[in-house]
């Protein structure tokens, strides 16, 4: 199976840091798989996610993403190119940062489409469908800041998918949730994978990792483990 995302020799040395956060990471992510990235605190998980997703530029190595327009060298794009790529090709479910507390649930989702030039009325109609599909019908006009943590993560999952992004990145998506709500959010993310999306999720939670197709383990910025769940496609 060809890779949707392919990283080679990734290095990340933060300025002033005593050691590299990433040190020669090679990783291939196949279309349609769910990959959990695990490892101790400080092992480089978030840095890897940010480099794979074009949020940070690596100090060495390459990241290649297959897109409808052909392969794109994410590492080589400038800031504007990487933000366009993130907007058009990728979806993000982070604990915080992408959603705006003062906007409604509907606006938070619709804005992702409006950024690509879709008119507001159409974007809001699509956003309402996504919110309903994720169990948030009736809460469209609620300010994000007045939603529960689990509801806000559903908004993030709607926003991540509305653009048609094939590749979703999540960083501790259930970290702030109680276990039942966290399990529901994970169900929704894995539901997106069942429908053909690809998921890379950073987690400390062995329960989440156990439900992913594959677990990649980092230590000191290197991949020290890469195993497929029994029964998952390899
Ligand atoms: N902006 C930064 N500047 C300097 N050093 C950084 C920066 N961000 C992360 N680091 C360092 O890089 C290393 C990897 O950090 P990273 O956040 O990727 O780890 P992590 O595995 O996600 O950790 P955690 O599980 O605690 O979130 C750590 O030593 C961290 O201190």
TrEMBL record:
Q: Name one GO cellular component term.
A: plasma membrane
InterPro entries named among the record's database cross-references: AAA+_ATPase, ABC_transporter-like_ATP-bd, ABC_transpr_LolD-like, MacB-like_ATP-bd, P-loop_NTPase
Family matches, as SMART domains: AAA (SM00382)
Q: What is the lineage of its organism?
A: Bacteria, Bacillati, Actinomycetota, Actinomycetes, Micrococcales
Highest taxon of the source?
A: Bacteria
Q: Know the name of this protein?
A: ABC transporter ATP-binding protein
Q: Which residues form the ABC transporter domain?
A: 7-234
Pfam families named among the record's database cross-references: ABC_tran
Q: Which PROSITE patterns match?
A: ABC_TRANSPORTER_2 (PS50893)
The record's GO molecular-function terms, alphabetically, read: ATP binding; ATP hydrolysis activity; transmembrane transporter activity
Q: Which UniProt keywords apply?
A: ATP-binding, Nucleotide-binding, Transport
Q: Which CDD domains match?
A: ABC_MJ0796_LolCDE_FtsE
């Amino acid at each position: 199976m060809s890779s949707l995302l392919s990283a080679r020799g990734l290095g990340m040395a933060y300025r002033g840091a005593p050691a590299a956060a990433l040190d020669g990471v090679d990783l291939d992510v196949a279309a349609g798989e769910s990959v959990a990235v695990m490892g101790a605190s400080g092992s480089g998980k978030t840095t890897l996610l940010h480099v794979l997703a074009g949020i940070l530029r690596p100090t060495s190595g390459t990241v290649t993403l297959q897109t409808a327009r052909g392969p794109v060298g994410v590492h080589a794009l400038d800031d504007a190119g990487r933000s366009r790529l993130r907007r058009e090709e990728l979806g993000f479910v982070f604990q915080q940062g992408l959603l705006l507390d003062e906007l409604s649930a509907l606006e938070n989702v619709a804005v992702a489409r409006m950024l690509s030039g879709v008119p507001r009325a159409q974007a809001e109609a699509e956003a309402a469908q996504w919110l309903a599909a994720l169990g948030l019908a009736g809460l469209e006009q609620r300010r994000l800041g007045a939603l529960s943590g689990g509801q806000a993560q559903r908004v993030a999952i709607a926003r991540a998918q509305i653009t048609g992004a094939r590749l979703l990145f999540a960083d501790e998506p259930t970290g702030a949730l109680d276990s039942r709500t966290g399990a529901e959010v994970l169900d929704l993310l894995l539901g997106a994978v069942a429908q053909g999306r690809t998921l890379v999720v950073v987690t400390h939670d062995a329960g989440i990792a156990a439900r992913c197709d594959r677990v990649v383990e980092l230590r000191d910025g290197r991949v020290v483990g890469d195993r497929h769940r029994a029964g998952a496609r390899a």
